[in-house]
Design goal:
With 269 residues, the chain is mainly α. It has 13 helices and three strands, in the order E-E-E-H-H-H-H-H-H-H-H-H-H-H-H-H.
């Protein structure tokens, strides 16, 4: 088959339509990217056999998917797993996936170690997450455990403490109608969910980051006591009522002596 003419596509200036002879006229044969056109040195009057055309189309298909992968990478760094998943989603053949992955790796466009380092720095600067959560996020993105562990090592103990302390200060500003001990339990759970280490959590909670507000504690105790009395007074009375309320308040983290004093006040009113 002879190439009769080559034209630039209207919608994509980097792609070219190849026309081939068809009797006394010509017809559209196929289209290729500019890189493939140059790679095969295609020009007018070239003779192409079926095998050559098949090879050209295979390379063009590969180039299209490679270009899509480059565009996918242009928005931000990606892990090898993210790129591989993207190629599979684009229905690339297994051998195409491997060839593109090898090329991107050779061109140093994918590097899980660099990705992990940048990801950790970004998380430290823009989020309140601790190293355990960040490491888990990296592994979910396909980063190997040893690379993720090394990357989060920049999240030092002092930096963890500083972030956890700041987070605790913010949370303590939102007063809740619960005991100080219960608040500490909630803060511990929240800091664990954020990914901070047990050592850091223990030190932050045992420090002077948040002082116990005795007035707020008494208000919360009285409020909870009144709720429990309303809950149990229809079913219990006197000694049984007092014990039920006392048990409930103790489970909520209030001090026994304080509980006794508040109950005396309320039940004598």
């Amino acid at each position: 088959m002879k190439i009769t003419r080559i034209t630039t596509q209207k919608k994509s200036k980097s792609r070219y339509n190849i026309f081939i002879a068809d009797g006394d006229t010509d017809k559209y044969g196929f289209s290729v990217d500019e890189d493939i056109l140059i790679k095969f040195g295609l020009s007018k009057n070239d003779e192409l056999d079926d095998s050559t055309i098949e090879q050209i189309l295979e390379k063009d298909s590969l180039h299209k998917i490679y270009t899509q992968a480059i565009n996918f990478l242009s928005y931000r760094m990606r892990t090898k797993k993210e790129i591989r998943d993207f190629l599979i989603k684009k229905e690339a053949e297994p051998e195409e996936v491997e060839e593109i992955m090898d090329r991107l790796n050779d061109e140093k466009l994918i590097n899980d170690k660099q990705f992990a380092e940048m990801f950790v720095r970004t998380r430290i600067n823009t989020s309140s997450k601790g190293p355990n959560v960040i490491k888990r996020e990296l592994m979910e993105k396909g980063v190997a455990a040893n690379i993720a562990t090394e990357a989060v090592s920049v999240f030092t103990y002092d930096l963890q403490y500083e972030k956890a302390q700041h987070l605790l200060e913010k949370k303590s500003q939102h007063k809740k109608n619960v005991s100080f001990r219960k608040q500490q339990e909630q803060w511990r759970t929240q800091l664990m969910q954020k990914g901070f280490s047990q050592d850091v959590i223990n030190e932050v909670l045992s420090g002077d980051t948040v002082d116990k507000d005795e007035e707020a504690e008494q208000e919360a105790l009285r409020s909870q006591a009144e709720k429990l009395i309303r809950k149990f007074e229809k079913k219990y009375s006197d000694y049984e009522l007092r014990n039920k309320v006392k048990e409930g308040l103790y489970r909520k983290g209030f001090n026994l002596d304080s509980i006794k004093n508040v109950l005396e006040e309320i039940l004598e009113e």
